[in-house]
C-alpha cells in the first residue's frame, strides 16, 4: 500500500513545527504530534485505542533524532548542564522502561490525564507569573535525582513526550537558569526516547491489527518523515531560544504548558465516556 503524497506533506509540516518547538523550548513535541498522528491513523481504519498508543510511541521515536539535532545547537552555546544529564539519566531509563514495557500496554483509565493536566497547569501558572524559587534551593542529592529521573522517564513514556514539561519546571524550581534548563531538557530527551522506544517495540510484538509499515507500536512512515523534517528546524529553534530574553522564554514555555494541560484534560473527559 503506497503512502499518499498528501499524508507525506501533512507529516512534513508537523515535523517542521515540532522540531522548531523542540529547539526553542526543550520539549520533544509529543503533545503536538500525538493528536495529529492519532487522527492520521484513525482515518486509515486503525481503532482509536490502538491509534493513540501508536501515536505516542511514534512521537517518542522522533524525539531520538530531534534531541540530537537540538542539543548540538545548545551545546555550542555551552548551555547544557551535562552533570545534571548524567545524574538524571539512570532514573530516566528505569522509569521509561517500566512505563513502556509494562504500564503502557495495560493503561486504560482516565485518571492519569486529569493528574497530568492539573500538574502541568500548575507548572504553567508558576512559569507565566515568573515565580521565583527560594534562593537557597538547589538540586537534590543522588537519591533525589534518581527519583526525579524515574518520574520524568515514567511520565514521559505514558504520554509520548520528551520530558520537557516536567524537567524544565523541575530544574528552574531548583534555581537552574531557564536557558540551561531548556538546553539540558533537550539533552535528556535522548535517553528518555531511546529507553521508551525499546519498550514500545517489545510490548507491541504479537499485535495482529497493526497498519502496514508498523514495527511494534511504531508507525514507520510518520517516524521517517517527521524526524527528517524536525532535525532541520531544531537548530533554528535553539538559536531563537538564546536570542530571547529569559522572561519571554518562560512565558512562551508557559503557553505551551497551558495548551498541553487543556489537551490532557480533554483527553481525560473523552476517556470517561469511552
What keywords describe this structure?
274 residues, 2 strands, two-stranded antiparallel sheet, globular, 10 helices, mainly alpha
Tally the structural domains: 1
The stretches of 5 or more residues where confidence is low (pLDDT under 50) are none
* Spatial shape: globular
Succession of helices and strands: HHHHHHHHEEHH
Q: Which class of secondary structure composition applies to the elements?
A: mainly alpha
Instruction: Please report the distance between the alpha carbons of the first and last residues.
Output: 31 Å
* Estimated share of beta-strand residues: under 5%
Number of helices: 10
Biggest sheet descriptor: 2 strands, antiparallel
Share of helix, binned: over 70%
- How many distinct beta strands? 2
Give the integer mean of the pLDDT values: 79
Biggest sheet, spatial arrangement of strands: 1-2
Rg over CA atoms, rounded to whole Å, is: 17 Å
Written description of the protein model:
By secondary structure, the protein is mainly α. It has one domain (about 5-274). The chain is built from ten helices and two strands; from the N terminus they run H-H-H-H-H-H-H-H-E-E-H-H. The protein has helices at about 5-25, 30-40, 50-75, 80-105, 110-130, 140-160, 165-175, 180-205, 220-245, 245-274, and strands at about 215, 220. The chain has a two-stranded antiparallel ribbon with strand order 1-2. The chain is globular, with a radius of gyration of 17 Å.
Question: What's the layout of helices and strands?
Answer:
Blueprint: H1 5-25, H2 30-42, H3 48-76, H4 82-106, H5 111-128, H6 142-159, H7 164-173, H8 178-203, E1 214-215, E2 218-219, H9 220-243, H10 246-273
Antiparallel strand pairs: 1-2
Helix pairs in contact: 1-2, 1-9, 2-3, 3-8, 3-9, 4-6, 4-8, 5-10, 7-8
Amino acid at each position: 500500500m503506497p503512502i499518499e503524497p498528501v499524508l507525506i506533506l501533512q507529516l512534513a509540516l508537523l515535523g517542521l513545527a515540532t522540531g522548531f518547538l523542540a529547539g526553542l523550548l526543550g520539549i520533544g513535541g509529543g503533545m503536538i504530534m500525538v493528536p495529529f498522528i492519532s487522527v492520521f491513523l484513525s482515518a486509515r481504519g486503525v481503532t482509536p485505542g490502538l491509534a493513540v498508543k501508536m501515536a505516542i510511541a511514534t512521537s517518542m521515536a522522533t524525539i531520538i533524532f530531534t534531541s540530537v539535532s537540538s542539543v548540538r545547537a545548545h551545546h555550542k552555546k555551552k548551555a547544557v548542564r551535562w552533570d545534571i544529564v548524567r545524574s538524571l539519566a539512570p532514573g530516566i531509563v528505569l522509569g521509561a522502561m517500566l512505563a513502556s514495557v509494562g504500564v503502557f500496554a495495560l493503561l486504560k483509565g482516565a485518571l492519569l490525564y486529569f493528574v497530568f493536566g492539573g500538574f502541568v497547569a500548575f507548572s504553567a501558572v508558576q512559569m507565566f507569573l515568573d515565580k521565583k524559587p527560594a534562593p537557597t534551593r538547589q538540586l537534590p542529592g543522588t537519591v533525589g535525582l534518581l527519583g526525579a529521573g524515574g518520574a520524568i522517564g515514567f511520565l514521559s513514556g505514558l504520554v509520548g513526550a520528551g520530558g520537557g514539561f516536567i524537567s524544565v519546571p523541575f530544574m528552574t524550581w531548583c534555581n537552574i537558569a531557564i536557558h540551561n534548563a531548556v538546553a539540558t531538557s533537550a539533552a535528556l530527551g535522548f535517553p528518555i526516547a531511546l529507553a521508551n522506544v525499546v519498550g514500545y517495540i517489545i510490548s507491541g510484538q504479537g499485535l495482529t491489527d497493526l497498519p502496514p509499515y508498523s514495527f511494534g507500536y511504531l508507525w514507520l512512515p510518520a517516524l521517517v518523515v517527521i524526524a527528517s523534517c524536525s532535525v532541520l528546524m531544531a537548530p533554528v529553534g535553539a538559536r531563537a531560544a538564546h536570542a530571547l530574553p529569559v522572561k519571554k522564554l518562560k512565558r512562551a514555555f508557559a503557553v505551551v504548558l497551558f495548551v498541553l494541560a487543556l489537551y490532557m484534560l480533554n483527553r481525560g473527559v473523552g476517556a470517561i465516556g469511552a
